[in-house]
Amino acid sequence: MTAGSGAASEMLTASTPLQVSHASGLHAVNRVLAEMHREMLRSGGIEGAAVRLSVLNLVAACVDVESADMASQAVGRLGAKHPARAIIIVATPDGRDQIEADLSLQCSATDSGQVCAEQVRLHVGGEVAYHLASVVTPLLVPDIPVYLWLVGAPPLRQAFGQDAVAISERVIIDSGEYHDAGTLRTLSEELVRVGNAIAISDVAWERTRMWRELIAQSFDGEDVRPFVHGITRVDLECGGDHVSAQTWLIAGWLASRLGWAASPRQPEVVAAFRATAEVADRDLIRAALRCHVDGHQALVTLERRGSALYSVIDVDGGITAERAVPITEPDTVDLVGRLLEVSGEDPVYRDALRSAAVLSSAR
Amino acid sequence: MTETAVDEAAVQSNPLSEGLRQGRIPLPCVVVIFGATGDLTKRKLVPALYALAADGLLPPGFSIVGAGRTEQSTEEFRAAMREDVQRYGRVPLREDVWNVFAAGLRYCWYDLDAPDGLHALHQTLEELDRERGTAGNRIFYFSIPPSGFAPLAGRLGEEGLSRAQGDGFRRMVVEKPFGHNLESARDLNSKLHMAFSEEQIYRIDHYLGKETVQNLLVFRFANGIFEPLWNRQYIDHVQITVAENIGVEGRGAYYEESGALRDIIQNHVMQLMAIVGMEAPSNFRAETVRDEKVKLLQAVRPIHPDDALSHTVRGQYGAGWIDGETVPGYRDEPGVAPDSLRETFVAMKVDIDNWRWAGTPFYLRTGKRLPKRATEIAIQFRRVPHSPFGGNTPTPAGSLPADSIDPNLLVLRIQPDEGITLRFSAKIPGQSMRIRTVNMDFLYGSAFLKESPEAYERLLLDCMLGDTTLFAREDEVEEAWRFCTAILDGWRAHPPDPNEFPNYEAGSWGPQSAREFLARDGRQWRRL
Q1: In a 3-state reduction of DSSP, which class is residue B365?
Q2: Cβ within 8 Å of residue B502, ≥6 positions away
Q3: Hey, is A2 helix, strand or coil?
Q4: Using CA atoms, how far apart are residues A229 and A346, in angstroms rounded to an integer?
């Protein structure tokens, strides 16, 4: 397997488990991993240069076995681009006392040979499941960042608990996984509570990137730029059976960047959804921004048609610019991969989330 | 619906761009390509612009006017460009993207000899401003023979096309060669300046658009561990090699005028040398970076024409074998004189007279029909001053004097297989003290698993954005010419004996004299 070219080149490649093993108890895990590496080199079991790299620790906290299976596959795909020590945890506080580990070496083909990274899948049961930091910390590779990926939709209050802050620099969450309308408000409150102790990346926010870029670029032209402060109505439509988190995040982003909260006349925001086979649930289908400035009007429309996103700018009834940009279809794993490249805080997201929480609650 | 009163100051910025990686996309503009039916337009320019469109990096309303002396319709031009994008493009053609991209494509006939020879272009540009909101923003790309640069620039100036109106911009892009010696380069610059100011002129050296060349700046100035070693105290010498396995590829007539020194050394290699040798800029603004490059070029010790032969080696390839096939000698190429004395290989030693590099030479070499295509910069560190593993101390392996231990080598590969290799010594496992050099490789492509944009994509986008960092400034070009012109003068005064050429076989690493040249300094060329 080699990285593809062209549009597919950013997609992450799958990898194959080279060796698998099992260990009971934490002390056994590092010993077994070292043995696996020695065995790999001794047997020459892979072609080309085998390189063991770790650029980060990725801890995937999973709500159940099913999401752990998904995380396990994802970590394999991510390994080529983000060689990591991956620790996948399924915690069952109500289960029997146990720390069982399944270990594997995941190797991904690159142009220069195979890059191998470790995966430790931990099944933690009983009282110790309430103290996961104590289980994870001894397994972390020192001096490289720790990313905590919350797989599925774990309870938010618990997700941002002490353990998360203790072990990780960044938490990756997908607010789109939650169907509860109050999710964005809870998430916003949690972020205020943890303050600067931890950075957050939201997969749903990353899903909106292309839309945000094209909306922003629509107002770059000299003739359209004045209208960015004259938006009077925003229509957003997404696929599925409810207005998705990312739809509210787009609305919140516009509101926060353009300072609508302080404005005496706040633009009308209309968010809608419709079930359609054309797009995945929660993905945006259309965004229309109506603007009025000094007797002139503009309509900026972005619409998904097939696999391209069309943007049309209409000023005073005449189309001034039209674009078609291919839509890249990153799945959750690709998006998580992108978020692993992020460092530092994203203040634009925090502002957007705060505004999105207000807008979604007012609905 | 309510109408909003807008603060004039607030509309100057677009707050939605904050925090977006692609926030800086250019303003709507028109790229006018003179020489629209030429090879560069087909193979590089339009495919690069299409790739930018497919990546969503072009502004709404972006337009291209192909200007040529061949009569053809816009429809014919679009059809030809579509074919070229399919044939030469980095990204596959998509109907939806192409249709919108093609709507901004126009073709215009022009003739500089006719009084109204730019009339159609004028009209088309005004039409695009009205219909597509390009707001008077224009880039004039001179994809034409160098002899046409000055007349075209002059005419654009006379017609008022070079002067920006309002907030719009007017820029021109020229391809190398920027002159054929110092005098002609100065003459060209002064003629271009009659119509365009220096800030409006973008001199393209496509090497600077390569990811790995840009990474050189990051490698040097974003890593604290290398810079303390990056000087005469730790570096023995630097080798820069631009090796081509191809011949003149049908450009014999051009090459007869140009030769390896003008074609490769004066621009690409001198630019690479400037980036490797320059001081750290205080910021990454275009002028600051270019100021540092100029300072380095100004510190290059001139070679007096009388010393040209002792400081350089010339070569010309004869017939030979490359990639398992026979290839003809240079003099047998079409368009080349049978008794040509034009150099297809150059090697030289460059001394840099400044605090950092005094006594640490840069060896440059380039050639055609060498065994393989490779552009590399090799930083050869000094040997360890003393080997504790040998000398008077008996070891199980016997004596290991310092000069038996290979010095560290840092290789920056520009193409192909872009990446960085560090060579260092390691002990071979076992009871005895045996040392072997090992390479630690960083492969650019496989580290990021992301296809790099073509150099032209990067440079065209930078030009639209008004970023001149990766373009050569007037004084950079002139400093490089100052150095090369003295060598050319020396060579002209001392032409090679006609029987001396060809002096290397195609498929070899150049003439024997090149090896002897380095051997005189107690060094040798790397085997790539």
Answers
A1: strand
A2: B315, B316, B317, B318, B329, B330, B331
A3: coil
A4: 23
Residue to test with chain B: of A114, A222, A227, A338, most B Cβ within 10 A: A222
The tens digit of pLDDT for each residue in B281-340 reads 998 888 999 999 999 999 999 999 999 999 999 999 999 887 777 899 999 999 999 999
How much is the pLDDT for B447?
A: 52
The span from the CA of B413 to the CA of B442, in Å, is 10
Q: How far is B5 from chain A (nearest CA, A)?
A: 6
- Which residues of chain A are within 8 Å of residue B445 when distances are taken between CB atoms? 3, 111
* Cα-to-chain-centroid distance, residue A345: 14
Whether B311 is catalytic: no
Alpha-carbon distance A335 to A204, whole Å? Answer: 9
Euclidean distance between CA atoms B1 and A263, whole angstroms: 15
Q: Which of A112, A220, A253 is the closest to B441 by Cβ? A: A112
Residues in A touching B25 (Cβ below 8 Å): 217, 220
Question: Is the distance from CB of A12 to CB of A78 less than 8 angstroms?
Answer: yes
| Pick from A286, A308, A281: nearest CA to A299 | A286
Which of these is catalytic: B268, B304, B311, B494? B268
Picking from A229, A343, A353 by the largest number of B CB atoms within 10 A of its own CB, the best residue to mutate is A229
CB A267 within 8 A of CB A276: no
pLDDT grade, residue A235 (50/70/90)?
very high
A71: left (phi over 0), alpha (psi -120 to 50) or beta: alpha
ipTM over 0.90: no
Orientation angle between helical segments B74-88 and B46-54, nearest 10 degrees: 80
Q: What is the pLDDT of residue A108?
A: 62
Chain A residues whose beta carbon lies within 8 Å of the beta carbon of residue B11:
225-226, 228-229
Q: How many residues does chain B have?
A: 528
Model confidence pLDDT, tens digit, residues B393-417: 445 545 566 667 789 999 998 887 7
Give A-chain residues touching B450 at CB under 8 angstroms.
Answer: 3, 9-10
Structure tokens at B126: 């005004």
Q: Which chain B residue lies closest to A306 (C-alpha atoms)? A: B96
Q: How far apart are CA B264 and CA B246, in angstroms?
A: 14
Nearest Cα to B320, choosing from B344, B347, B337?
Answer: B344
Alpha-carbon span A217 to A321, nearest angstrom: 11
Confidence (pLDDT) at A45: 46
Question: Phi, psi at residue B95, to the nearest 5°?
Answer: -60, -45
Q: Is there a contact between B94 and A80 if contact means CB atoms under 8 Å apart?
A: no
The DSSP 8-state label assigned to residue B182 in this structure reads: H
Across B450-488, b (16+ Cβ under 10 Å) vs e yields ebbbbbbbbbbbbbbeebbbbbbbbbbbbbbbbbbbbbb
Per cent of chain B over pLDDT 90 is 61
> Among candidates B374, B378, B347, B343, which has minimal Cα distance to B513?
B347
Asked if pLDDT for residue B63 goes beyond 90, the answer is yes
Write out the DSSP string of B262-296: IIIIIIIIHHHHHHHHSPPPSS--HHHHHHHHHHH
Q: What pLDDT sits at residue B346?
A: 98
For A225, the closest chain B residue by CA position comes to B11
Separation between Cα atoms, residue A147 and residue A141, nearest integer Å: 12
Residues, chain A: 363
Local structure of B304: helix, strand or coil: coil
**Cβ <8 Å between A292 and B99:** no
Half-sphere exposure of A57 (CA within 13 A, CB side): 20
**CB A129 within 8 Å of CB A92:** yes
Residue A9 pLDDT level (bands cut at 50, 70, 90) = very low
> What contacts A151, CB < 8 A, 6 or more positions away?
A60, A61, A62, A63, A67, A68, A70, A71
Looking at per-residue confidence, does A278 or B273 come out higher? Answer: B273
